[in-house]
Amino acid sequence: MNTYHIFFDESGDLGFDFTKSKTTRWFLVTFLMCESKRPVEKVVSSTFNALRKSSQKNRGGILHAVSEKDSTRRRMLEGLSKKDIKVFVLRIDKKSAFFASEQREHVLYAFYVNMLLKNVMSELDNSGCKLKFIASSKHTNRYYNEAFLSLLSVTGEKLGADLEVVLRKPSQEKGLQAVDFVSWSLFQDCERGIDHYKNMIRDKIVYDEELFG
User: Fold this and answer.
1) Residue numbers in the chain where pLDDT is lower than 50
2) Which of 36, 38, 51 is nearest to 3 (CA)?
């Protein structure tokens, strides 16, 4: 049985008060999938080790795209572009008249993550595989309630996959740092019209869908 690792991240927010400067128009759900996670981990490690020693201090071994220098972002994305990975992204336009803004955040969150998971299975077209879905524990109390985790497990069963959902810190799973850079790059494209980061990994994107745009 083949085992695939899916690292998950999101960009933007699910707020609807656009009078606030931090409310984003777009919300992205991003998956980075690989069969072997070791090559991805090596890219993250080499990118971190390329930092100055003084810059490595007090980081806990963690890279975060939003706060890194451009050279670090490019090093990470260039490294990932050479690895055997697949990127899946669902882009939601919150300003669309068709968007159900009255729904609670955790309901929308679960719906979109589950939708993208179904498309991953369509891409694999291989029943009986094992999926290890790895998400950051930073949102555990906010979104990852028992109902949400159960929903993902049921989806896996219906689609013929053995799905394991794991919550980890980015310091524990380097793949979470990698998908953070990927999701950030895709977000720059749709939210700010900056596409050169996305272009660096464009060949790795196998699914890119816009909802309500």
Assistant:
1) 97
2) 36
